[in-house]
Amino acid sequence: MEYKYIIVEKQDNGVGIITLNRPKAYNALCTPLLDEVSSAIKDFDSDNSIGAVVLTGGNKVFAAGADIKEMADLGFADAYNNEFVKKEWFALEKHTKPMIAAVSGFALGGGCEMSMLCDITICDTSAKFGQPEVKIGTMPGAGGTQRLTKAVGKAKAMQMCLTGDMIDANEAKEYKLVAKVVEEGTVVDEAKSMAAKIASMSQPVVRLIKESINNSYESTLQAGLESERKSFYTTLALEDRIEGMNAFVEKRKADFSNK
Ligand code: DAK
After folding, report:
1. Is 166 close to ligand 1, i.e. is its CB under 6 Å away?
2. Quick one: which atom of ligand 1 is closest to the CA of 138?
3. 122 to each of 70, 119, 152, 257, how far by Cα in Å?
């Protein structure tokens, strides 16, 4: 696949590198960019010569979130029926090789979520993490209320998601969102050398360790029930729900429009 929005490199020492490369838009995560990232991840996953992956936006900005210009006209029915960017994020979440996020500058919204779905996040002193979706009338959709809460705790996650305020690198370290903070301009090199160390280990062992640590994040029954309840509430926004219930009351067959 030819890449337009990312740069993909493969080093001899088993390290794969994906660099988001849409600098004019602060690496905003438009669907084609996410498509490319998921394709590159899948390639690395099936490549036995790769032992670890670095995901970065380079030394200036990680990603300022999903592409708001692309989302501006997106309605509920379209997003839900077509599973807006679900398969792209799924590919990222399901990768089996250890992935290190190397963050400089903004990691906001989907950018923060992308850094959190990596196995290790490191950043430099310029990093700023945030879930600012509330400011544009929406909410995190790819882990901002889930992984963030597990990482930083309820109070800090509530503060970040409800105010949209960013935290800097020191706070990110204090709240255990990142494993390490390094000097500005050095985060990509640091991530590469960490990835090289991991790639030099036994790959099946590394994979088992990764799976085992991830298992500690498995959701509980309560979390599943909560998510189910919210999804139920979401159906109340559908025209089809109104039609279905009215049809029942009027003792006729429902005529659904998929909206
Ligand atoms: N989308 C599109 N363009 C963006 C962008 C974004 N998120 N962020 C920045 N840009 C563009 C700006 O429009 C501007 O482009 P031009 O006007 O020059 O053409 C350029 O990048 C530089 O931005 P600024 O001029 O605004 O630069 P500043 O330094 O003044 O401010 C900023 C930088 C990052 C603080 C600011 O741009 C900003 O607040 N950006 C928006 C941040 C944000 O709200 N992010 C959350 C987006 S919502 C899901 C998966 C993921 C998501 C949802 C669902 N599923 C799996 C279901 C994710 C949702 C989101 O991330």
Report:
1. no
2. 48
3. 29, 10, 15, 47
Alpha helices in 46-83, H assignment, sequence order: 68-71, 76-81
Cα(109) to ligand 1 centroid in Å equals 8
Q: Whose CA is nearest to atom 2 of ligand 1?
A: 67
Report yes or no: 124 and 104 within 8 Å, Cβ to Cβ.
yes
The rounded Å distance from CA 42 to ligand 1 centre is: 26
The 10s digit of each residue's pLDDT in 112-156 is: 999 999 999 999 999 999 999 989 989 899 999 899 999 999 999
Distance 244 CA to ligand 1 centre (A): 38
State the closest ligand 1 atom to the C-alpha of 85, by its place in the atom list counted from 1. Answer: 56
Instruction: List pLDDT tens digits, range 208-242.
Output: 889 888 887 767 767 756 777 776 778 788 888 89
Q: Whose CA is nearest to atom 1 of ligand 1?
A: 67
Q: Where are the alpha helices (DSSP H) in 121-220?
A: 147-152, 154-163, 169-174, 187-199, 203-215
Contacts of 169 (CB under 8 A, 6+ apart): 123, 124, 125, 126, 127, 128, 178, 181
pLDDT in tens, 162-188: 999 999 999 999 999 999 999 999 999
Q: How many helices (H) and strands (E) does the chain have?
A: 12, 9
Token pair in block for residue 91: 């590919």
